[in-house]
Amino acid sequence: MHYTHDPIFPENFFWGASSAAWQVEGATREGGRTQAVIDLNSQKKKPFADNSIASDHYHHYKEDVALMAECGFSSYRFSMSWSRIIPHEDRKVNPDGIAFYNNLIDELLKYNITPIITLYHYDLPCWIEKKYGGWLNRSVIEEFEYYCKICFNNFGDRVKYWLSINEQNMQIVYGDWLGVSKGCNNWFEQKWQINHIMNLCHAKAVLACHELVDGGKIGPVPGMVPIYPATCKPMDQIGAMNAEEFTEKIWNDTYVYGEYSNFVKNYWKNHNINPEIKPEDEELMKKAKIDFFGVNCYRSNVGKDAPLDLEAKEYLLNKDGKKGNLQFPINPGEFALTENPYVETTDWDWEIDPVSLRYTLRYMWDHYHLPMIITENGFGMHESIGNDGYIHDKERINFLRDNIYQVGLAIEDGCEVWGYNPWSFTDLLSTGNGMAKRYGLVYIDVTDEQLNKINDASKLSIKRIKKDSFYWYSKLIKSNGKEWGREKE
Ligand code: BG6
């Protein structure tokens, strides 16, 4: 549809932004927190900084929340650090961890900002890994359930919106990159066991939320990269559908229907993959009815047919921020990804495609008929303070404006969307490029070099500076999506 009017956003729409504990908090050895596997993983990403200080949100949370309020936020999506709440295998709850999140939640509520909390954003505690060898062990399920219950019991009186696992699909697709594959010697097969264990963790979280949080709502957070077919050649359409299955649909179907689809079961059969699935597992998965989807979406991909006689190629992501530095995958017999000549890309070769956000929302709504909250969307770029002392992030403003407009159009198209929380509020550590790849509406005055050199937050500036995008976003959200800052064609 083309519309003759600007989209209208619902009253009480959640306008906010997003973060994750391990990427924003810092203080990884303070307040009783112990190490998480992702901390060690971040230490391997030199020359970029690791996460020990990050944006030092742990010490700056009051200032950060005040800035959110100044911007006009009505929501903030963030995650809790499991090893801050339960730091050791004796399962004792850390009072300092509980106090930190209580303070953060209360500070948000003071300004009428609704917390939307992710229970798990890549940060498995090291003690779990040491005790059980990582995600492959079913004991993780009980530990995760215990942790979730602690969160619901401590914060559920004030927090009603919960997210289970961030981008489970991406953790399985990019296991090494996100530190999930530890303890595996045959990732090709074992990733499906890990995936099953994560599905059970998700299901336990859903059930516990409904049991313990009065009026609580909970959903998963798939990482959505919609797939367009490369051409109208019929087999390219099948290739694109395969790509969609293998990168996102398998996960979404399981969350909603509580069982594995014939597509994935046949794939397992053909490849001799036998994850251990007990009858009671599927019962549990079926009982765990989600209330909504969190949706992370930054870009799109293009899929095409990959006949069996093609040579396989791995997906090599651009990890250094110099354009043209990625390799599209070829999975013979399944699908290949390829370039999209119609869209520009970021320095990390991510497609800049606002329409893909509308497409994703339409796709999710058509398939599942569940409400959605956009939990991530954003523009990663190299940035530094300008000569005038400010940060003029015009590209980010354009990205946000065009993406939010598409959210509005999806709502006009009939999708039920409850909120928009772009990545990220302040700059924070990227998954692989430290502070070199910035996403924030607020600049954090610290570089990878400084973080590498001075391992002490109190000796670094870490000053917060509002970027141009902060002011632009503030106007837009205070007008509930009316002040676009330019004429929109
Ligand atoms: C999302 C993750 O997939 O993408 C975030 O949930 C991540 O944790 C974000 O930071 C952006 O990716 P990157 O690699 O640019 O940090």
Automatic annotation (TrEMBL):
Its EC number is 3.2.1.86. Keywords: Glycosidase, Hydrolase. InterPro entries: GH, Glyco_hydro_1, Glyco_hydro_1_AS. It is an enzyme of class 3 (hydrolase). The active site is at E376 (nucleophile). GO terms for molecular function: 6-phospho-beta-glucosidase activity. Pfam families: Glyco_hydro_1. SUPFAM superfamilies: (Trans)glycosidases (SSF51445). It comes from the Bacteria. This is Aryl-phospho-beta-D-glucosidase BglC. The gene is bglC_5.
